[in-house]
Amino acid sequence: MRRAWKRVGIYLLIGLIVNVAIAWMIPTVLRGNWFNAKYDIEGQSWPVSVPADWPPAEYWSSMSAVGYDGVTAMANLDDLARTRRLDPSVVLYVATRHAYGLPFHAMTARQLQTQQGRSIREVDEGPFYRGFAVGLLHYPAPYRRIALFPLWPGCIANTLIYGLLAWLVVSAARRWRMARRRKSRLCPTCGYDYANLDVCPECGWSSQQPGSPA
Ligand SMILES: [Zn+2]
């Protein structure tokens, strides 16, 4: 019984690793090639928590692709356009919520930026950004981002799916190996040539059904 639980744990761990690895590879694979982008969509608030001194969000857009969803909100875009993007008194505020994962979104990152004149700044809060960037940053570059925070429902569902797939692959391979050994008259569990004895002298496997009289 304990061994069975240990095996369940191992497959869940494999499922978790595959799930997170896929979520982390998606930004690199997509490299900003969204299948579906919508601009000027309706929105009510910033898609992620932003510093208290930020103005209310005014513009929303969304991007999606296989394994990816992003919502971006901005403030002061009009002011910036009016001043030809060079006026240092105008600050553009940008906040994006990224979600990655297959088949369900499993990991999330947020991205906060301000743009003042020509300088674009990543806004950080505390020692850990929600997700961190790899390499040089420029806007928009969500494909350089590794999302560190789990979206629990998707993360759990993906872990179960990939764990189950791993178990199916391993048990199919095991069954195939046992069938092949049985055919070549080797012990199906350890591969020892048991020479038509009823019990394998190496590992104790018995050709009799368990429980039947020997
Ligand atoms: Zn054996």
How do you describe this structure in short?
With 214 residues, the chain is an alpha+beta fold. Helices cover 31% and strands 23% of the residues. Zinc ion binds next to loops.
Kindly describe this structure:
The chain is α+β, with helices and mostly antiparallel strands. The chain has two domains: 2-154, no CATH class; 185-214, no CATH class. It is built from three helices and nine strands. The chain has helices at 2-30, 77-82, 152-183, and strands at residues 36-39, 59-65, 68-75, 91-100, 107-116, 119-122, 132-133, 145-146, 149-150. Strand 2 and strand 3 (68-75) form a beta hairpin. Helix 1 packs across helix 3 (152-183). The longest helix has 32 residues, at 152-183. The two termini are 26 Å apart. Residues 125-142 have low confidence and may be disordered. The structure holds zinc ion (ZN). The site of zinc ion has 8 residues, from loops.
Tally of extended strands? 9
N-to-C CA distance: 26 Å
Q: What is the overall pLDDT average?
A: 81
Radius of gyration: 27 Å
| Percent helix range | 25-40%
Low-confidence residue ranges: 125-142
Strand proportion, as a percent range, falls in 15-25%
